C-alpha cells in the first residue's frame, strides 16, 4: 500500500508513511504537501540525494532516527545542528553535514521505484539538480 507519489526527474516512485514509528514527522511533512522542489547530490553523506529546506523549523523531535539509511528509506532532518532537509539514500550512506554526523527521522519507505534510485543518484551527481514532486 502506498500513501504518497514521488516524481524525481523522469521517475515515479511510491512510498508509505512510517506513522507508527514517526507520527509527528509524518504529520509535519503532510502539511507541506503538495511539494515541488529540487534534489541535489549530497556533499558529506555518501550515496544519497537531498532536498535542502534552509532554516525552516519543524519542531519535530527525534523519531525513528538513523544516521545509516538504506536505499528505500527517506529521512527528514528537522533542523538543529544543520539545516532542515530531506535525505534519500541510493547506496552506502552515513548522514552528515559539515558540522558532523546527523540522524534524520525515517518517516517514509519506498513501496515501488527503488530500482530507479541508483540512476537518480547518477543523474544528480553528473547532470545536476533533479525536479522533486511529492503529492
Q: Any overview of this molecule?
A:
It is globular, with a radius of gyration of 13 Å. The strands form two sheets. Strands 1-2-10-6-7-4-3-11 form an eight-stranded antiparallel beta barrel. It is 13% helix and 44% strand. The chain has two helices and eleven strands. The model has no long low-confidence stretch (mean pLDDT 96). With 135 residues, the chain is mainly beta.
Give short descriptive properties of this protein.
globular; 13% helix; 135 residues; mainly beta
Give a nutshell description of this structure:
With 135 residues, the chain is mostly beta strands. It has 2 helices and 11 strands; from the N terminus they run ββαββββββββαβ. The longest helix is centred in the last third of the chain and has 10 residues, at 117-126.
Amino acid at each position: 500500500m502506498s500513501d504518497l507519489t514521488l516524481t524525481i526527474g523522469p521517475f515515479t516512485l511510491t512510498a508509505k508513511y512510517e506513522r507508527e514509528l514517526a507520527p509527528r514527522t509524518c504529520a509535519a511533512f503532510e502539511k507541506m504537501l503538495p511539494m515541488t522542489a529540487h534534489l541535489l547530490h549530497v556533499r558529506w553523506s555518501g550515496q544519497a540525494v537531498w532536498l535542502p529546506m534552509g532554516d525552516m523549523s519543524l519542531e519535530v523531535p527525534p523519531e525513528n532516527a538513523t544516521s545509516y539509511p538504506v536505499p528505500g528509506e527517506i529521512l527528514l532532518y528537522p533542523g538543529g545542528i544543520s539545516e532542515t532537509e530531506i535525505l534519500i539514500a541510493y547506496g552506502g550512506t552515513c548522514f552528515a553535514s559539515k558540522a558532523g554526523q546527523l540522524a534524520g527521522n525515517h518517516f517514509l519507505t519506498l513501496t515501488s521505484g527503488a530500482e530507479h534510485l541508483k540512476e537518480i543518484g547518477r543523474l544528480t551527481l553528473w547532470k545536476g539538480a533533479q525536479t522533486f514532486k511529492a503529492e
